[in-house]
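$ ./design --mode recover --in tokens.txt
reading tokens...
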């Protein structure tokens, strides 16, 4: 924990956000189990310290590599040189910094790193959820969201709300499995037509795309909110990227593509105008109060 605190302080000293602190702790768990070790492995026998930094001149002296604060500072300086590190999946950002063999090596350490950062981070880490999703700066919707709003799946029931829940049977588990980052709707007895919930600019189309399946992401025209609607039937999409659609425009057919246990539509809300939002890179917001205010729930 002392070494984790040193890593977090190094990030704070560089005025980096809590997301960077979490990445640093995650990396060090994956490299050294948060111990300052004086040996390397077969692939890097000259590796030393919390981050297993090599004796190639890029990471400073032996003393630098063995000092928690200095080695962490050098890690974060290298991280900042990775283009778009803030929006990369954390394990990929670490991989491009550390240049290890397996880009997915660090995924398994995210939950443990989150627990440590939340324990040590005080108020700055309070809004990090248990799966490791960090709040974005200004992650809120300010003022009224203009335009007409309609039910996104007419005749459907809300089958799962936003917040903690056990991973549904039949779905893939993992670090994000026990928190629901959106709201689910399902039409009893048949597949319904998914509608644009409000006036939207379509910014992302997904076709059988991993956990999302088939779906669309749109931005409200005032730029205050980004909405994703996923798990639609393959080949059913009726819009394309760049379209501006009115509330009630058919988007696709309710389906069961992606990481699902059955047919439904999953809807996620993000603050601001994001071109390609996804968990855990971007923090969701709870759609419930907005949908209640609009008369949808």
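writing sequence...
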């Amino acid at each position: 924990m002392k070494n984790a605190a040193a890593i977090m302080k190094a990030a704070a000293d560089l005025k980096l956000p809590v997301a960077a602190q979490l990445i640093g702790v995650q990396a060090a768990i994956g490299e050294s189990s948060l111990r300052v070790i004086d040996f390397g492995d077969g692939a890097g026998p000259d590796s030393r310290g919390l981050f297993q930094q090599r004796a190639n001149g890029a990471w400073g002296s032996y003393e630098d590599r063995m000092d928690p604060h200095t080695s962490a500072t050098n890690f974060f300086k290298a991280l900042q040189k990775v283009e778009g590190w803030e929006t990369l999946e954390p394990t990929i950002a670490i991989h491009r910094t550390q240049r290890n063999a397996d880009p997915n090596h660090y995924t398994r350490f995210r939950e443990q790193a989150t627990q440590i950062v939340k324990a040590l981070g005080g108020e700055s880490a309070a809004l990090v959820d248990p799966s490791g999703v960090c709040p974005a700066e200004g992650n809120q919707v300010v003022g009224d969201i203009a335009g007409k709003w309609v039910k996104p799946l007419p005749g459907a029931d809300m089958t799962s709300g936003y917040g903690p829940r056990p991973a549904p049977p039949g779905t893939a588990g993992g670090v994000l499995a026990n928190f629901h980052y959106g709201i689910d709707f399902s039409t009893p007895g048949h597949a319904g037509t998914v509608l644009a919930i409000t006036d939207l600019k379509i910014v992302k189309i997904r076709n059988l795309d991993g956990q999302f399946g088939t779906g669309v992401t749109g931005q409200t025209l005032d730029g205050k909110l980004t909405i994703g609607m996923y798990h639609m039937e393959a080949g059913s999409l009726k819009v394309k990227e760049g379209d501006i659609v009115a509330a009630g425009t058919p988007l696709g057919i309710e389906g069961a593509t992606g990481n699902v246990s059955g047919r439904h539509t999953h809807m996620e809300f993000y603050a601001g105008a994001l071109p390609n939002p996804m968990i855990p890179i971007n923090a969701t917001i709870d759609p419930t109060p907005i949908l209640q205010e609009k008369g949808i729930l």
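exit 0
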